[in-house]
Structures are given as C-alpha cells and as structure tokens.
Amino acid sequence: MTRDISKGYDLGNAPLLPLSLKLAIPTALAQAVNVLYAIIDRMFIGHIASIGNIALAGVGVAAPITTLISSFAVLVGLGGAPIMAMKEGHGEHAKAEQVLAVAFWMLIALSITLTPLAIALRKPLLMAFGASPRTFVYADQYLFWYILGTPFTILATGLNSYLINQGRSKEGMFTVLTGAILNIVLDPVFIFALDLGVRGGAIATVISQASSMILTVAFLRDRNTPIRLIPSRTGKDAKALVHKVLIFGLSPFMIISTDSILMIILNMMLQKYGGAEEGDMLITCSTIIQSFHLLVMNPMGGLTGGCQGMISYNFGAGNTERVRAGILTVQAITTVYCTLMLLVTIFFKENFIRLFTSDDAVVEAAGRYMLIFESMIIPLSFQYTNVDCMTAMGQVRFSLPLSLMRKCIFLAASILLPVFTHIATTAFLSEPICDATAAVISTSVMWSQLPRILKKRETAGLSI
C-alpha cells in the first residue's frame, strides 16, 4: 500500500480537475512571482534618469546569462523531483528521501563550480552576446553582483521542485513570494536611495534569493514534511542516482538553457542587423518583450510542473487511466491560461511596456513586435504540456528530442530570416514559427506513443 505524500492532496483518488488546480495554481503563482525578480529590477532600472533605456538594454544582454545559470538548478530540481514522487507512489519512501539527499549535494556541487567560472567568463561572454560599448558597463555591473549570489539561486530554485512534487505547492509559492516581496522593497532602496544604480538591482535580487533559499531548506527539513531533506541519506548507490537525475533533468534543462542561448542569438542578430542606430533600441524592445514572455512561459511551466507530481505518482502506482485523464486535464488548464495571456497581449501591451519606459518611440516599437512574438502562444501550451508530462512519466527519449526540436526551429528562423531579408526585426518572427510547428509535432508524438507507454507500465511494472 502506497503512502500519500501530500498529507492533504490525495494524488491517487481525488477528482482530477480540482486536484490539478490545487497543485498547479500555487506553483504557477510561484513562478509568476519568481519572474518578478527580473521584471522588478528592469522596471526600476529602466526609469533611472538619463540612462534608463541604455541601462535596460545592458540588463537585457545580461539576462540570458543569468537564466542560463538558473537552468542548472532546473537540471537537478526537475530531474530528481519526478523520480522522488514516482518512488513514493511505488511505496519506496526510503528511496524517495535518498533522491532528495543526493539532489541537495548535487546542487551544492553546481554552486561551487559555476560561481567562479561565471565570474571569470562574464566579460568576454557579454561582448560576444550582444553588448555594445554603450551597454557593456551596465551589463557587467549587473551580472557581476548577480553571479555572487549563484549559490542562493541554485539552491532556492532547485530545492523548490522537491516541495512542489510532494504536493506542497503552497509552501513552494510562499518561499518564492517572500523573496519577491523583499526584492520589491529593496530595489528602490539600493538603486535610488543608496544610489547604486544597476548594481543595486542585482544586490537586491541576491539578498531576496538568499531569503527564499533559507525558507525552502527550512520547509524541507521540517519534521511534518512527508519526504524530508536529510543530507546524510545519500546511500551507497548515490552515483547511480546522480546519473538518473541528470538523465531525467536533461529535457527541462535543455528547454531553459537553450532558451537563454536563443535569446542571446536573437540579441546578436538585432544588434548586428539593426546597426549602430537601431541595435540598442531593438535590444531594449527585446528586453521588454522577453519580460512579458517570461510571464507567459514561467507560470505555464508552473502549471505543468505543479501537476508533474500527480502524473508521476499515478504512473508509479500503475493508475494508467488516471495518467491519461490527468494529461488531458493539464492540457485544458494550460490552453485556458495561454488564451488569457494572448488577450492580455492584444489589449494591455502598452500598459505593460510603460512599466519599463516612458519613451514613446520605444513603446510603439515594442508593442508592434510584441504582438508578432506572442501570436502563437496558444499552440505553445501543447508543447509545454506534452514535454512536461512525458518527463513526468520518465519518457526522456521523447521529451528531450521534442525540446531540442523546438529550439532548432527557433535558432534557424532567428538567424536565417535577418540574413536573407537584411531586416533585423524579422528575427521576432522566429518565436511564432517555432511555437506553431512544435505544437503539431509534439502533440502527434504524445498521442501516438502514449498508449504504448501506458500498456508497458501495466504489463512490465515500474523500471525507474
């Protein structure tokens, strides 16, 4: 008999739609709040007197690198958390705790490795990835201080997944919300009151991430948490578990890390083909558009990620019909969300853009390109649902290629369109092209392969 990890959410029997909403909404809100770390910094920085637009462009160049650093936390977080949930659903509680302990030390190792490496490489990376002589100084100021907080970011982001996959979405949301509120309070203090400018925004973010990390560890160490963080419980087969976590986490890691790389490529193309006159302005527009796109993607990843524990638990328990119905439920939720965000794009884009700048030329241009960039976000919901549900069932052989396929389409479009047209702004078409194409392919793969996956689970047992 399996033990319900959620102590309140019956992952194996509760009605799917209410259960999915209870798991997904707090996680999505947590991800939306997490986006505020980046957005709040950019909002305040964009309104610094006389240098706001250029400073915002500098932070925009640095942003993909900060996201790339965070993606290593996702490698371990979303790699190990589904395994933990499946083991618990299969009745292997000790193994579930072992997965969590191994993941904790993996995150520590990543922090120790990435921090000095990022500091050493930051300057050549910024110049290679789209910084101009005008924007470099602001990009470098922001990135250096952000990198110093890498251990806090890695641990807070990575361990949060282990709360969520125990059905502890509310605690996961609370840890992120606390950090975001602190960031809102500290940003104006450090940027304006202490006159630290761009570096002040980064320092406020580091302090806020540290608070989130402390809360996350405290929740996982609490005696009332079903699967507790006990660092000493790594076990003799820790090396094998490290390998499994990396395999499972490769797909979500590729999604986020390659998103960063693709944004770097996009900025490079805008700078190159926009020229000295338009390049910095287009990167300012791109930074604002990417801020909005984070509000689309991260909460949607929260919706699918919040339900991963439900899918993994039932897959581990062999409730295959409930797995099938759960996937359809998740798809319905993400489709509704993306429809709402498309309406927000159409009717409220200018309100959002003016949070970052009062320059009418930037507002007009960013609004025009935002409509293009976000035009296919409803199909994007199918890609997210299919990839994350495949990952929740341990089907990395499908989720990883589907993730890489979408990135390859974006990469090709963002490079080839400006090259052949010699128009920098055609690069903004790369997102809708890849969203529409990936939705068709991933949905075809999901519903052609799902019957075989579930049949194998019924007949062969759990092989994770």
Major β-sheet, in short? Answer: none
> Could you say which structural class the secondary elements and strand pairing correspond to?
mainly alpha
Mean pLDDT metric: 89
Order of helices and strands: HHHHHHHHHHHHH
Distance between the termini: 19 Å
Question: Can you tell me the residue ranges where pLDDT is under 50 for at least 5 consecutive residues?
Answer: 1-8
User: In percent, how helical is the residue content?
Assistant: over 70%
Based on CA atoms alone, the radius of gyration comes out at 21 Å
Oligomeric grouping of the chains = single chain
Q: What share of residues are in beta strands? A: under 5%
Outline the structure in words.
The chain has 464 residues and is an all-alpha fold. 83% of the residues lie in helices and 0% in strands. The chain contains 13 helices and no strands. α2 packs across α5 and α11 runs parallel beside α13. The radius of gyration is 21 Å and the shape is globular.
Search tags:
disordered N terminus; 13 helices; 464 residues; mainly alpha; 0% strand
In short:
By secondary structure, the chain is mainly alpha-helical. The chain has helices at residues 16-46, 52-89, 93-128, 136-148, 150-164, 169-193, 197-221, 238-317, 320-353, 360-373, 377-392, 396-421, 430-460.
What's the layout of helices and strands?
Layout: H1 16-46, H2 52-89, H3 93-128, H4 136-148, H5 150-164, H6 169-193, H7 197-221, H8 238-317, H9 320-353, H10 360-373, H11 377-392, H12 396-421, H13 430-460
Helix pairs in contact: 1-2, 1-6, 1-7, 1-8, 1-9, 2-3, 2-4, 2-5, 2-8, 3-4, 3-5, 3-8, 4-7, 5-6, 5-7, 6-7, 8-9, 8-10, 8-11, 8-12, 9-10, 9-11, 9-13, 11-12, 11-13, 12-13
